[in-house]
Fold this protein.
Amino acid sequence: MDLGFETIGNACLIFHDGGPVLATDPWLFGSAYFGSWILSHEVPEEQQAHVRNCRYLWISHGHPDHLSLPSLDTLRDKEILLPDHVGARVANDLRGLGFQVRVLQDGVWTQLSPRLRVASIANYNQDAVLIVDLDGHLIIDANDAGDRGARHFLMRELPRFQKQTFLACLLGYGDADMINFFDEQGRRIPPRAMQHLPVGPQVAEVLHAYGIKNYLPSSSQHRYQRTDSLWTNDCATPEHEYTNGFRSDQARCLPAFLAYDLLRDDYRCIRPKSNEGKVAKPEEFGDDWNEPLRDGDAASLRSYFGRFEHLKGRFGHVTFRVAGKDCVIDISSGIDRGVTFEVPRNSLMSAVEWSAFDDLLIGNFMRTTLHGDWWGKQSTDALYPHFTPFVTKFGDNGNARTKDELRGYFADYLRRGFTSFDLGPSDFDMREALRDYL
């Protein structure tokens, strides 16, 4: 392909300008989230070769379905381009592992080849959007970043693109987050993703809102393989569901796996082999549900959660049920609001050691039970905005845990001019949660 792109894998796009130049979020093989996730389909050798022939890689954020270290280890000759995340954790970690890294300034075009330039926009949720100009064609790789202010740049630039426009972003039933909730009687609370609401109307609404002509399914081409997370496959979005209910006379919903030739303005479908039916036991990834906590583990858990100042005064306790025994981490006295996480010891202590608690949440083998009043929210929404973002996004990945660190963190993002909290109810909730830091 002389000029165009391919979509293959969970959030991997491969851009061609006289040959492969840039690949994004190359998860090419292996598992993620303590073995819970695998790719929904194998990445064919042709596309793997195209990634190997790229000069550049762009990594949106640190989740292991986007930053796959086993895949990156086979691509060490590439220059890795990164968004300018406050805290620079991904950049520092990759440099420490010997990778060549370049951080892209927010909203500044960078030329990568004669007809290919990119602009990266980092957001306060430690994710990012990549804007790609491929000879006047616009491809927006929003993966699972959402729009937290990137539209300010997009709306400024969009009128300049008179050719085809494409948006790759996460839409679907909604499995790519913690949805493994139980009530206090031990009964699973069915997540909204189990309703299998048609995805097509979501796709049309987003395309029409931004004036984009084509949708590319992204960040949802995965499935669950652990015996303790297999249940979540009922919440994953099948590829054919993106067109279910899609209606538009001005936009298209394209297949999940394709090679798009921009000179011909046409595409061919890529038909990768499905990974459906693969099953693995938790023990294959070091998780034995009967293994108890060891000496020193409770102290490590208390030290870890004691660093997040936002939790104090809002939560009474965080409890870990490991091998049937509870380890209670007291946060604040006089507050009955708390949470119990039932989880295997190995993945729990690894997540704490690596400051990667989000990997436990997203893996959906950890069982979560809420106690007390969570601001009147439904259980499957209640970890936002006061728990998950402050622990996993701002804390683990942004290195902002104290009140002063959080103020500096958000001041930096606001200074750049690409941050907004006015797109919907969840943004309003976040602004309210951040009122002490903005």
